[in-house]
Design brief:
This protein folds into three domains: about 60 residues, no CATH class; about 70 residues, no CATH class; about 190 residues, TIM Barrel. Strands 7, 8, 9, 12, 13 and 14 form a six-stranded parallel β-sheet that branches. Strands 1-2-3 form a three-stranded antiparallel β-sheet, covered by helices on one side. A three-stranded antiparallel β-sheet has the order 4-5-6, with helices on one face. It is built from twelve helices and 15 strands. The termini are far apart. It is elongated and about 120 Å long. It is about 40% helix and about 20% strand.
């Protein structure tokens, strides 16, 4: 009897342990899943009509990769996840839990194509043209669909994989409305005051250099400017006054496109050799010619040949910009040489000297822009570079670089 009683007690103990274990699994693990859902850090409702959606949310939340989840008029559910450096979006039917492509939220193929075109347009406003063309062709896009806009995240293509940049644009519904057309399959809202946030901005934490061009304007200047603009780059052009009669329209174009204009004398004279008021009259003649074309007199002077002394600095109320990287493009007249020299010698804070009157210089500059971008460089004007580096350009002072 004692043996039978012992066996019964053992069986009862085992049953109790099993019941406790099952209860623990249910109370802790299953309810833990519910807790993940109920306490989702974004404090949004995460229960949907379809269990497929709930299961996917629980999975993403437990892995701590869910960025957002949004209901679109009880027609669609949009989830955005970020895992291992890659964004992924999921769009479900609200009731049936069926995964759909983003084009299905639009009322027509024309409306969807408008969205794609606007996405590309917004990309051009923030990133280089070549990068956007590549992203739109070879990079996968993920979407965060909100009441008033669609945030588009580009996963990097092979070409851009090493660039320290997150590619992201906002397509506000204001950009998609044409003649008050109802383009989406759900009710959306429009911002009361809308301004496009997709703009290029200099990143002070990335290496930045200043391109400077002497002796222009010339027949190649405009093409240089256009290529700089396609990368959202800028440069400082030190112009010679006696060339502005022929190339005045080019100067206006440069200025309109955001380039900085500096004074490089009227006739490329060596400034220290100009005495008895000739120094001031030479510089002032160029200032007046520039002012007549763009309504502004330059503060920066690039002395021809880099020739400068205390007499020049004290005689003129300007800042004098020299350089610390000289490509010698005027001497070698070789596009590959110019490109390779820049890539080999450029470093953060450099002021690089070139000339926009030589075809080989133009070609070298155009060819180096993509490589500079892929290596993480930003290209801007002397004044902006100085500002980024915390330097104030002062009268009667000369500067070679901004390290």
């Amino acid at each position: 009897m004692k043996k039978v009683s012992y066996i019964i007690k053992s069986i009862l103990s085992l049953i109790i342990v099993l019941l406790f274990s099952i209860s623990y699994v249910y109370i802790y693990h299953i309810n833990k899943d519910n807790k993940y859902l109920n306490d989702f850090k974004y404090k949004k409702t995460v229960y949907y009509e379809n269990q497929k959606i709930n299961k996917k949310i629980a999975e993403l939340v437990k892995r701590d990769v869910l960025v957002s989840n949004n209901v679109l008029g009880k027609k669609y559910v949009n989830l955005l996840a970020y895992e291992n450096g890659v964004y992924t979006s999921y769009i479900y039917g609200y009731y049936n839990g069926k995964l759909i492509n983003i084009d299905k939220i639009f009322k027509s193929e024309e409306a969807y194509q408008l969205f794609i075109n606007k996405t590309k347009e917004m990309c051009y406003l923030k990133y280089p043209v070549f990068a956007c063309d590549d992203l739109m062709t070879n990079g996968n896009m993920s979407y965060e669909i909100l009441d008033n806009k669609i945030n588009v995240y580009f996963n990097k293509s092979e070409l851009l994989k090493d660039v320290n940049e997150d590619y992201f644009v906002e397509v506000n519904y204001h950009e998609l409305i044409v003649d008050d057309a109802d383009i989406l399959n759900y009710v959306f809202s429009l911002d009361t005051n809308y301004t496009n946030p997709n703009t290029y901005k200099i990143n002070p934490n990335k290496p930045t250099i200043a391109f400077t061009f002497d002796d222009g304007p010339g027949p190649y200047t405009k093409e240089i400017v256009d290529n700089l603009v396609s990368y959202h780059y800028k440069a400082t052009f030190f112009v010679v006054g006696n060339r502005l009669g022929k190339y005045g329209d080019v100067l206006k174009y440069q200025y309109k496109k955001g380039m900085e204009i500096g004074n490089h004398s009227y006739d490329h004279s060596s400034l220290p050799k100009l005495k008895n008021g000739k120094l001031e009259s030479n510089i002032n003649a160029t200032n007046e010619a520039i002012n007549n074309l763009i309504g502004e007199k330059p503060f920066l002077i690039r002395p021809p040949y880099g020739a400068i002394n205390d007499y020049v600095k004290e005689s003129l109320p300007n800042a004098f910009i020299l350089w610390n990287v000289d490509t010698n493009d005027w001497l070698y007249r070789d596009a590959d040489y110019v490109k390779n020299y820049i890539l080999t010698h450029a470093s953060d804070g450099d002021v690089i000297l070139m000339h926009d009157i030589h075809q080989t210089s133009k070609e070298g500059v155009i060819n180096v822009l993509k490589d500079l971008y892929l290596r993480g460089f930003q290209v801007t004007t002397v004044s902006e570079l100085a500002s980024i580096k915390g330097k104030t350009l002062e009268q009667h002072s000369a500067y070679r670089g901004f390290k």
